[in-house]
Amino acid sequence: MSFQDFKLRNELIKVLEELNYKIPTPIQEDSIPKILEGKDLLGIAQTGTGKTAAFSLPILDSFLNKKIKSKKQHPKALILAPTRELCAQIGENIKAYSKYTKIKTLVTYGGVSSEPQIKALNEIQDILIATPGRLVDLIEQKNVFLDEIEFLVLDEADNLIKMGLRVDLKKILKKLPKNKQNLFFSATMNKEIKSTANELLIDPIKIEIDIEEINLKLIEQNVFYVLKEHKIKTLLEILKKKEVRSALIFTNSKLTSDNIIRSLTKNNIKSEALHSGKSNTHREKVIRHIKTKEIKYLVATDLASRGLDFCDMTHVINFEIPKDFESYTHRIGRIGRAGKKGVAYSLCSLEERNFFKKIEEANKYPIKVIKHDYHSNLVKSNGGKKSIGTRYRPKVRRTSGGYNNRKKKK
After folding, report:
1. Please, what CATH class does the domain formed by 3-209 belong to?
2. What is the pLDDT of residues 337-388, one digit of tens each?
3. CATH second-level architecture of 213-381?
4. Engineered SS bond to 320: which of 252, 267, 324, 327, CB 3.0-4.6 Å?
5. Which band of pLDDT confidence, cut at 50, 70 and 90, is reported for residue 209?
6. What letter would DSSP give residue 124?
């Protein structure tokens, strides 16, 4: 199948040819015809599967075929996403797809002044891409009205709910007309997501793409068992490898990310941090530097494990172990895309072994244990045992008077 088979408008086909879009991805192949038919859709698929094109191409096609006209402050399509980075990424793609049309797209999110966004809304905007928080502010200030929305897209819906945006989401949904086409995309499906989908969608077509399993087949998974204090040294050893051309280094906290940046800087390794504590200007600069390859190493929290597509990254390094298998797969799923192979390393300390054991049990593919300079030290630290799969606690015999290593009273 090719994109021509969807019978999209020539304006769109021309762009797709320029962008070298030849064969639709599974989510595109299944979704585009159903969306063109006007069906509500529930798509379970991760970032990197081509979701943006899957929902935006048929929406753009409908704008052109139906000659949909928007008014000032009254957009016709609304796309909600959980982070400013994902909103910006969606906006860039849609603006590229609509290159040969007069369709106008506006991206709005918090962390920046709302004045330019308000000014833009006073002009005709056909498609509005927004984070829920900023959109609620614009609605309450009567700078935008959603009563004429014909298309609603929720992208990364599970992340919208996880990030505590459900209250804002409900406020937005109340402002929307009942007669509209609803497109709901999520990487996972749980009770909360299912409940929200049931409220929103009318007799939806369900499409599920198991991209994670496809990705994991292409990813070589490795683990270093290290003491916590040896993690930085181990990370530096990995980054010195010639094959590590670029790497996404994951941590569990903003503080750890910033500490790693300082350590890498001391060792003359140029890197950037990406987490919620950074300003919007900084975060946009980081994304730009990654795309232009001005920096090769990005240190990030799970903010970067979902939504953003780093297609040229060769390696993922879990500096800290995530607490569940889902987070692990989202992290290493940043590589192994579009048929490209990738390598993932995890640095597992004794304190994190229980988390990693659960990941190993849920994983269908082997994770290779790499022996290294600190491996033997770790075994020694574990009382000389060969097994380092359990958390080490030194054996201390107790007596009624306390620990046996206390000095005896004379």
Report:
1. alpha beta
2. 656 788 999 999 999 999 999 999 988 888 999 986 655 455 444 444 444 4
3. 3-Layer(aba) Sandwich (3.40)
4. 252
5. confident
6. B
